[in-house]
What does this fold into?
Amino acid sequence: YLSEMTDDGTSNSYSVNMEGEDREELGAGVILGISENGQYLAKGDWNSAVVIDLSSKETPYIWASEEGSPVVFLGFVNDGFLIEGDNYSEDGYNVTSRQIFGRSFEQPDEDIIIGDLNVNEESYSSPEFKRLTKDGKEFYLTFGYYGGTGHFLENVEIYKVRLEENSLELIRQNPDAQEDMDNAIPLIFASK
It folds into this structure.
């Protein structure tokens, strides 16, 4: 599975065999992830995401974001996937909350509301998703807040999550992130 930039500046995804032949188009968007079992593929861009069932020829789309609704694909988890979506004020200009939700492959038409990210009053920046780390049936989401023209790390938030309603739990918030954490060091979580 590969993605390429087209002449008009958009991205296109496709698959080829190991010899680079038998190209099969997957449509617009870059590849965002593939499930561990290889059955599901996520693709999209800055404001959309689509999850495709690669084994299905009749109904390949498991989920697609609504048009004009910015989303961030966070990754595949156990039997589903996680998404971050913004909720806007009635005038459509201000983000009122950033919500984490999921979908289970067993019930692909039902949103699982995981929870809302904390509102960071000390930062003017929006949280940027950095990493999904798996630890058994639990997952950890890492978000960074960056500011200034140098895009300096201002804050880090780490959440524990399961593919269950209201399971989002803030486990670390650090306003002094620049001093305490090197952005290049991956965070590793292990079971006790």
Notes: The two ends are 36 Å apart (CA to CA).
